[in-house]
Structure formats: structure tokens, C-alpha cells
Amino acid sequence: MTMSDELTFAIMLDRAIAQSEISLHRLSRLLAARGDPVSVATLSHWRRGRRAPHGDSSYDAVVRLEEVLGLQAGELVSRIPARSTPGPDRRRSFDELQARGDVPSNVEELSARLGHRAKDTALILTHHRYDIGADRRIERARFHNVWVARTDGARSVMASWRFDSPPDEEPRIASVDGATVGRTIFDRAHRTFVAELLLPRALERGETSINEYILEGLGEQDEVTCLYSVVERRVAAASIWLRFSPTALPDASRMILESLHGRQEEAVHCVDGELHRVVRGFGPGIIGVDWAWPD
User: Fold this and answer.
1) Residue 45 contacts residue 60 (beta carbons within 8 Å)
2) How much is the average pLDDT of 282-292?
3) Max Cα separation, the chain?
4) DSSP letter string over 8-28?
């Protein structure tokens, strides 16, 4: 057995903190800024082996610790004591989170076909805006995302969309900032669209990147009655914002928040043609809105 095999979580964390020369107070602030707050006292307990991370929120914080301390993905997570690791639901894939209806999602497969490596980057902030037209269909969708590189050399991130009743023609990325559009795949049979967004340059581990893009051509065959934003892993903040045409306002709207801890539903009313929800320290899970149209 090698020395690395014998390292405990506490020893590994203590070494990483010492090498980084980051104080526990600053480390606590950095984690809070990324949406995974951990107190100085808790960090001290973890570092000294007096307590081990436990539960979903602690697991997410350890993932963030790897990023802040410049460690390889999994270096700390793999050493969390077995009794403290989260259950199998924690490892639900992006496709499982997006699963709705009788047609499975294949976003991960299509992303892999484009050569994207999901482990290279992690989403830390995401904001989605949808404009619904007078015909009760999506006119455009705007996305603002902030990513952090988990490895050196990260060069791309992915944009994806799933349809309930897909159009005949492939959607298009009408505008993009902070990246350029690479290859795309529209798999109508699986109701899936993915696009490769190429970053201006390769990122170093821990470096952030911001990009914005607009999707058009999302008009489904049926009138849209729900929209969901999928968050694969915990993010500092996420939001969904819907703007309706004044001649096509929704009725009986519900905000939906679904995570590993369960599902929450809240009746909401469209005000001045808008609905929105902001959540912090959320994920993995789904932020969604569904509604009915008046007769």
C-alpha cells in the first residue's frame, strides 16, 4: 500500500491548506462566495480530524475545497469517510435529471460525441430568461453562465436543450459572447439539441469564464406550458425568468423546485407579464415553472 492510499481526509486537507497558505477565515469566505458556506470552526474540525464531512451540503463544499485549494478533482472527495459519503441519488447524471416523459435524455452521449469533457469545467452561476410570444411558443431563450475550470487546459463548455415536441428544423444560436460556437447536434428522435461553445483560450485550473448566448428556433409543435432549468451540481446562484406577450398571459402558474431533498411547489401569479425565481446555494436539481393557458 502506498503512502497516498493511507492518507486520511484530515491529513490531506491539512496539507493542502498549509501548502496554499490560505487562512481558514479566507477559505471560509471563498467557499461562501461560491455558494457553499462552511464556518471556520467546521473547517478546523475537518482539518484536525475531529469531525468528518457529512451530508449533501458538506459533500458540495468539499468539491469546492478542491477547486479553491488547486487540487485534482476527487483528491479530497475520495477520502471522505465511507459512512459520510452521500447515497446513490447524489450521483444522478445530467440525463437522469432531465428525464421527463417516455423518451430518455441523451445530452451526455451527444456531448461526448462532440469531444466535450464534463470534468474540465463546473458551472457556478446560471441565469435563464425565456420570452414567450403571442402564439404561446418560445421566441428565444437567453442564458448567462459562469464556469470555473477544474483542470488545466479547459477549452469548451456545452449548451443543451430538450424539447417536449421538437420542431422540424434545428435550433440556432443567434448570439454568443465570451465564446464561439463550435459543432452542434440536433437529435430530433431524442428531442435533444447540444452545441459546443469554444472558449477564447485554454483556462488554468480555478480560473473562471463567463459566457452568454441566445437560442432561437425553439418553437415546439405544441403550445409551451412548462419550462425547466436543470442544474447538474451545486451552484452559487441560479434563476429562471419568463416574460410573456401581453396578448398571451398564463393562468394557474406554479414555481417548482426539485432537489435531492424533495420537491417544492408554489402557486404564483404573473405580474406585468413576468414570472421569475432566484435560488442560492442550489443543486443538483431543477428550477421550473408550469402553467395553463386560459380557454
Assistant:
1) no
2) 89
3) 70
4) -HHHHHHHHHHHHT--HHHHH
- Spell out the residues 6+ positions from residue 178 whose beta carbon is closer than 8 angstroms to its own: 199, 200, 209, 210, 211, 212
What burial class does residue 242 get, using C-beta atoms within 10 Å of its C-beta: 0-12 exposed, 13-18 middle, 19+ buried?
buried
β-strand partners of 203: 154
* 10-15 mean pLDDT: 89
Instruction: Output the CA–CA distances (angstroms, integers) from residue 252 to 64, 267, 294, in the order listed.
Output: 39, 7, 9
Mean pLDDT of 40-54: 87
pLDDT in tens, 216-271: 998 887 899 999 988 887 787 899 999 999 999 998 899 999 887 788 999 999 99
Residue 147 CB burial class (10 angstroms; 0-12, 13-18, ≥19): buried
Distance CA 142, CA 239 (A): 12
- For 182-208, give one letter per residue: b (16+ CB within 10 A) or e: eebbbbeebbbbbbbbebeeebebbee
The H-assigned helical ranges of the chain are 3-6, 9-20, 24-33, 40-48, 56-68, 94-98, 107-113
The grid coordinates listed for 108 are 451526455
Task: Count Cα neighbours of 135 within 13 Å in the Cβ-side half-sphere.
Answer: 9
Cell numbers given for 180: 464561439
User: Is the pLDDT reported for residue 76 higher than 60?
Assistant: yes
Supply 197's cell numbers.
Answer: 461553445
